[in-house]
Amino acid sequence: MGALKISEEHNGTAKVLAFEGSIDEDTVFSNLDISHAQEIVLNLDKVAGINSCGIREWIKWLNTRSPSSHIVFQNCPKVIVDQMNMVSGFLPEGAIVESFYVPYYCEESDVETMVPFFRGKEFNGSSVNAPETVPCWKSGQPAEMDVVHAKYFKFLQTQSTM
Amino acid sequence: MSAAQVLNQSSLQIIPNATAAELVNAVFQGAALHAVADNHEDKENEVATATLLDTNPLDFLRKCPRILLDPKQIMSEAIELEEYWIQSTKQKVRLVKKVREFVESIPKASSVVDSALMVADELITNALFNAPVDEDKHHVYNDLDRTHQVNLAEKDMARLYLATNGSRLVVGCRDPFGSLRPQALVQHIKKTFDEGISSAMNMGGGGAHIGLRMVLDVSMSLYIVVDPWNTTNVFAVLPIGRRYRQMDDVPKALHVVNLTK
Hints:
The complex is a heterodimer.
Chain A: E1 5-11, E2 14-23, E3 39-50, H1 52-62, E4 70-74, H2 78-86, E5 96-97, E6 99-106, E7 111-118, E8 123-124, E9 127-128, E10 133-135, E11 142-145, H3 149-152
Chain B: E1 5-6, E2 12-15, H1 20-28, E3 34-37, H2 43-55, H3 57-63, H4 66-69, E4 80-86, H5 92-104, H6 113-130, E5 158-164, E6 168-175, H7 182-195, H8 197-200, H9 211-218, E7 221-227, E8 231-239, H10 244-247, E9 253-258
Parallel strand pairs in B: 2-3, 7-9
Antiparallel strand pairs in B: 1-2, 3-9, 4-5, 5-6, 6-8, 7-8
Helix pairs in contact in B: 1-7, 2-3, 5-6, 6-9
């Protein structure tokens, strides 16, 4: 699907990794040592896709972290949320989801808008408090939330409240 | 399964409100080669294609992928079709890009772009790594790490198919090996439902063994037709013009046919 770029920064004690592209068999996680990191922040904003090999490599890689480490998922796009809901271990036990995207659809303009949901604002623990519609960026008409709540927000059942 | 209604031929089961897991189970138990949810939107077409597959499978294969869009008007000019050879792992990025261009050119298809790319990705990988066998019918690349470069000889190239009539999208692949074992595949897909995808995943070398489960998840119809040691044909039909929330519960059909049977 196209090579994945991973950039690494340090924010205090946190190792911040930003992903861009598709997670697949060519993704080299072995260069990303997370075995000693106590706080790991994964910014997934620009992940475009993931295939079956990518899912496996992702789970194997996250299993190399220290059990005591703290892990945060940021800006999860729909392709990542779908895996968090489908594949156990994709979102490790104890991981915190700080933010993720929810698709909204405008019938009039046939345009999809991905709206970011933030922990403590649009969701807290498993509770979601978000508008059913938002103004479409193109038409200004109401765009409807385009997910089945019980399925798309299922992963939030693992999330603790702030 | 007790509510299953057997129609005309024992190979076809129309199952009321069937989930994907129930369809897989019906095929796994040998109760059907074709398992169709009774609320499938294209039920009539599914029955027609199943009937042709049973009576004249080679004719069915000749007519793929057009027949999957409309069995009655396979030469309709409304059908757009593109085909590409699959020869090497190096091509994959370019092929997936072609798929993206094709799907993005279809009006109201934005919600299936990611799914179509994933389907194509999995089918291309299967064609390159899982399908090829040597003269002794031993798989040659199956156990390789998927980062290896594979280059197929011209006679071994697979074919990637993209087709649409504006309301359905077909992404399919035909390889010239026919090495897929349908029953083992269905058994493994069943395992992903019974035990969960993570438990069924191969964490060792080779493929992850969850690709066709992922393909089934996003498809409204999935055809797996194996002509042993001749061709393996996998065609996924995806609905166009749906929103994401309408995709989750799309009634499905599963056809798994081994032509030796």
